[in-house]
Amino acid sequence: MRHRAGRRIAQPTGYRAFHPAPLPPDPPVRLEGGLQALLSQADRALGRLDGSIQTLPNPDLFVFMYVRKEAVLSSQIEGTQSSLQDLLAAEAHVLAPDRPRDVDEVVNYVNAMNHGLHRLHELPVSVRLIREIHHRLLQGVRGARLTPGELRRTQNWIGPAGCTLNEATFVPPPPHEVPVALGALENFLHADSELPQLIQIGLAHAQFETIHPFLDGNGRVGRLLITFLLCQREILIKPVLYLSHFFKQHRAEYYERLQAVRDAGDWEGWLAFFLRGVASVSREATETARRILALREDHRARVTTGLGRAAGNGHRVLEHLYQRPIVSVADVEELTGTSYTAANNLVSRMVEQGVLVEATGYRRNRLFRYQAYIDLFGESVEAEGEAA
């Protein structure tokens, strides 16, 4: 079983690199006992999540924040410091002096995910799509000098900061093997298989991380791959599974499980971890959808009863906030087609109703947050999840 996932082979210059065996594993994954039970739980939780999103009045409105939560968490696993608030502020073009320098990496993640989801209508998950996503992810940010969109032509390795190739925890396949390994992964994804869909997706993520085909951004691209496969295979109609929340909470185990596949061929251990994550985050994301509905009904009622003749424009602003939860008075003016004074009055009344919160403390160029909605996806929800 030790060489079930591949083997380390000495290279001409003396170091040993891992050559992954093609998927599916041989001997086959043992889908029995606890692993079968976890698969059933994950399938049921994903089904409930997909159903709950479809009960929302306009699912596309709410995908905006699910995508951004995944972007923030996946990027934080790789060491970025930017929060969800930082990302939303950057997208609203708020140039705060204390804005983290790495927020552009998270913005790129959002762009890469949206690009990939759009491309899935015309291009299946493939090496070509993976390279496109990588190009979007690294364009103009840290790692941009490391050939965005290009498979690596030099050896990379994983290990403690400052370690050498010979001291590395893991050395992925040498550069000339990368196209071959990625081609085999693509073939696996497109081949007919009796393996359950979630098992295939879990295998594919681990295999991609083992191939490590780029000089930077492999973790983020590999986690995007999970989202793309869930949507392409219509397991989820919308990209609302922020699985990086589980991976970040259990970061050490995440890496240990991946490494155990390479060291000991322990595919079952990795898949059990992966399925626990899918089930856990699906339940949390379903609860988020329930809270969205409750919040929306509460705030629609406040707008209807509290804004009088301006309620129509208030509802228009409220719906807009689900996609752009930070607005200025000028934004509201444009959205409602009213005067600046009328827009300013409308915003002030929505602040009085507890729908909007003034975010800058300025007298001019003020910005307003839909804070209650942001909080459904922010650090407070994450803390509750960790305590549960």
UniProtKB/TrEMBL annotation:
What protein name is recorded for this chain? Protein adenylyltransferase
Summary of subunit composition and partner proteins: Homodimer.
Is Transit peptide a UniProt keyword of this protein? no
Q: Which PANTHER family match?
A: FIDO DOMAIN-CONTAINING PROTEIN, FIDO DOMAIN-CONTAINING PROTEIN DDB_G0283145
* Reactions this protein catalyses: L-threonyl-[protein] + ATP = 3-O-(5'-adenylyl)-L-threonyl-[protein] + diphosphate; L-tyrosyl-[protein] + ATP = O-(5'-adenylyl)-L-tyrosyl-[protein] + diphosphate
GO biological process terms, alphabetically, are:
cell division
Q: Name the top EC class.
A: transferase
**Gene3D superfamilies, sorted:** Fido-like domain (1.10.3290.10), Winged helix-like DNA-binding domain superfamily/Winged helix DNA-binding domain (1.10.10.10)
Q: Which Pfam families match?
A: Fic (PF02661), Fic_N (PF13784)
Q: Where is the Fido domain?
A: 125-276
Record organism: Luteimonas terricola
